[in-house]
TrEMBL record:
Signal sequence, renumbered to the chain: none
Keywords: Methyltransferase, S-adenosyl-L-methionine, Transferase
Stored CDD domains: AdoMet_MTases
PROSITE patterns (alphabetical): SAM_OMT_I
Name of this chain's protein: Methyltransferase domain-containing protein
Domain of life according to the entry: Bacteria
Organism placement in taxonomy: Bacteria, Bacillati, Chloroflexota, Ktedonobacteria, Ktedonobacterales
């Protein structure tokens, strides 16, 4: 079970994000943190399937990153997390240090498509939670860098259906993956490819 100190930190980060998002108009300055039930579900998936090489696109303040890092560090895993905002990158760095999980995460600041193109992987768990319109291109770049047994997830299926439609169409074309939508938080797309026997 997650210790009380990390639980309190996560509650604080989430509350600060909610306050921030209610008070700023500019989209790029919003934190848009993952909903807590969705974050917990990701954590359960990571721990139960012993995921060790996680890629997150969209770090923001590090709220979901902490959930993922805590989950994978229990099995000696690692998270690579990408965000284009230098300000959010610095905030996530601070929050991960407060959670004593900084060594579990490789934070990369920059354009996700450019970064994904040069990452080598292999990744066994990918989570999209950033620019939904560029996600199909990033998905195409990532698929060859996945382990045979891999999860691909994306948030905001129900909250931003028009923006994520291209991504969902791209996922449906990956016939080796089973795909479903989970009605948790803002709607979670979950795709899974089972290792061939």
């Amino acid at each position: 079970m997650m210790n009380a100190d990390i639980q309190r930190l996560l509650a604080e980060i989430y509350a600060e994000g909610q306050h921030n998002d209610a008070s700023v108009q500019e989209h790029s300055r919003k934190m848009l943190n993952l909903e807590p039930p969705t974050a917990q579900l990701l954590s359960i998936l990571v721990r139960s399937s012993r995921r060790t090489n996680i890629l997150e696109i969209g770090t923001s303040s590090g709220y979901s990153t902490i959930w993922l890092a805590w989950a994978t560090q229990t099995v000696g895993g690692h998270v690579t997390s990408i965000d284009r905002s230098a300000e959010k990158h610095a905030l996530a760095d601070t929050n991960l240090r407060r959670a004593h999980l900084r060594e579990t995460v490789d934070l990369i600041c920059g354009d996700a498509s450019e970064i994904v193109a040069r990452l080598t992987g292999p990744f066994d768990f990918v989570f999209f939670d950033a620019d939904r319109r560029s996600a199909p291109n990033q998905l195409e770049l990532i698929v060859p860098k996945l382990t045979p047994d891999a999860f691909i997830l994306a948030d905001n299926v129900n909250s931003h259906p028009d923006e994520i439609a291209g991504y969902l169409a791209a996922i449906e074309k990956l016939t080796q993956f089973e795909h479903t939508i989970i009605p948790v938080g803002k709607g979670l797309s979950l795709a899974y490819r089972q290792r061939a026997d």
